[in-house]
Amino acid sequence: MTFQNAALVAVDWGTTNLRAAVLDEAGSVLDKRASDKGMGQLVPDEFEPVLVDLIWDLLSDGAVLPVICSGMVGARQGWQEAPYVSAPCKAAGMEQAMQVATSDPRLSVWILPGVSQAKPADVMRGEETQIAGFLSKFPKFDGVLCLPGTHTKWVRISAEEIVSFQTFMTGEMFSLLSTQSVLRHSVGADAMDIATFNEAVSDAMSRPQAVASKLFSIRAETLLADIPEEVARGRLSGYLLGLELSASRPYWLGMDVALIGDPALCGLYKDALEAQGCPSRVHDASDLTVAGQWAAYQSIKDTP
Amino acid sequence: MTFQNAALVAVDWGTTNLRAAVLDEAGSVLDKRASDKGMGQLVPDEFEPVLVDLIWDLLSDGAVLPVICSGMVGARQGWQEAPYVSAPCKAAGMEQAMQVATSDPRLSVWILPGVSQAKPADVMRGEETQIAGFLSKFPKFDGVLCLPGTHTKWVRISAEEIVSFQTFMTGEMFSLLSTQSVLRHSVGADAMDIATFNEAVSDAMSRPQAVASKLFSIRAETLLADIPEEVARGRLSGYLLGLELSASRPYWLGMDVALIGDPALCGLYKDALEAQGCPSRVHDASDLTVAGQWAAYQSIKDTP
């Protein structure tokens, strides 16, 4: 299969892997490719060969193929640093994209910058491209975006700009506590009791500091009362999310909230917000990064 | 060197290692031994050989050497389960010690039980023996014991009994976040800025829920403002301890607090409590477990 009409390669290059989409001149996806060569295992010189390896069949002599990258590839330890743009700012910071010098003349590589915030100190790298994609579909959106994940982002959007944002390590804490701590013996691996989860969320919201003591009680209840793993898991997840919702209240209270990310995880956020009287909508996140890269390309390709 | 006057072997048998003290008839320590054969790596049949291996030179035909064990050796997955005694109760639950059948007739092995609490659900296994040791030295103590560690215990003591207690996973969370999470790139390995630590404690105590968002800001400040590792470490430690002190307030507020454990860690707790107007004393914890096992032995040896 050949892709003679490939107009752009959009690369989401994270710490552990990369995903590339091949787009035609209209922004339609012709093909998708992936590799496990994340930036975490590469030194600067190794990025170009990895990229060429992934898209060699799209390159032809005498032609130049544009490649837009976003994510950790632009971090200080990445291919080339694309310094953060400071919020408030346009979502993908397209004007500040960095062009990377390549030894292969058939490539024209750009890296999109992340977004920073001075106070409270915060950073994002990758999410801003999803946000750009979301705003390319809903340019009039005025409200709050929540991107649940390892490091969940709450983002205030107005007039197509990222006004402010805040990051929560809830996902990473859940992962560490459920797989590495003493609680791993209690929470099991999969199912979660949703009623328990919702109860734990409101428990944590009414007395956030108590989360510090309630965590070990999950283990104790397994030992003393043999509570089911799905109950233990619901409690752990609910306590941590309740703590996050308690701290992020200024973001969601009385706001129009859009959730972007893994549907199951977004569903938990939606349930928890609903119990607090905050309606929200879950958006399909699957192609938002590509949409954001495409939107960035639209502006960059006209730059001299 | 021989120990013909050995009267008791006191074994603190935890998950990852065991420490044995050889005592004479007056309770003085004649010798100390250790092994890395913790209960976590042993099946029930393997405990006796490990013990014999450690004290073979103390055993003589025709004589029976008493051995008192405490710690995880008495858990369900240990040598033999010594079921929890339910608080309120005497510290080491000496009356409920379990005698273990051994194939070597020169041994008389007892396992001390842990202590449980039904509501809020909580358990301890090992700390109750330190508490017994503390109470054998300060039988009139009426107040609160705090045993900082991986799982810090706050324990209300009155009339030589454990009245109630609460466990916090602060130590384990600090360890996971500082070595396994994204914060490991920020906090370094050793030194901690104490002024930052104290500030973070009071920050967390005045707005406990904000800890959920302040954690990632440590990482962001490293990236944006290049804050020193000891400042980042002070902040992480302070936020987590502030969250614990906020939740454990009913334990320490207006109480006589005695800290037992690693002196450096106890020092951090002491500083943080002092800033909240709560004076406390740090006690040498090094021989409390042995003292508690000795106290238990005093009662058991008279049992028919």
Provide a quick synopsis of the model:
Chains A, B: This is 2-dehydro-3-deoxygalactonokinase. Chain A is α/β, with parallel strands linked by helices and 304 residues long.
Please render the helix and strand layout as text.
The structure is a homodimer of 304-residue chains.
Chain A lengths: L7 E6 L4 E6 L5 E7 L8 H12 L9 E6 L14 E2 L2 E2 L7 E3 L6 E5 L3 E3 L4 E3 L2 H11 L5 E5 L4 E7 L2 E8 L1 H10 L4 H4 L6 H13 L4 H15 L3 H19 L1 H4 L4 E4 L2 H13 L4 E4 L4 H13 L4
Parallel strand pairs in A: 1-4, 4-8, 5-9, 11-14, 14-15
Antiparallel strand pairs in A: 1-2, 2-3, 6-13, 7-8, 9-10, 11-12, 12-13
InterPro entries (chains A, B): DGOK (IPR007729), DGOK_C (IPR042257), DGOK_N (IPR042258)
Pfam family, one (chains A, B): DGOK
Protein name (chains A, B): 2-dehydro-3-deoxygalactonokinase
Radius of gyration of chain A: 21 Å
- Secondary-structure element order of chain A, as H and E? EEEHEEEEEEEHEEEHHHHHHEHEH
CATH class of the largest domain in chain A: Alpha Beta
Q: What structural category arises from helix and sheet content of chain A?
A: alpha/beta
Strand arrangement within the widest β-sheet of chain A reads 3-2-1-4-8-7
Organism (chains A, B): Cognatishimia coralii
Protein name (chains A, B): 2-dehydro-3-deoxygalactonokinase
InterPro entries (chains A, B): DGOK, DGOK_C, DGOK_N
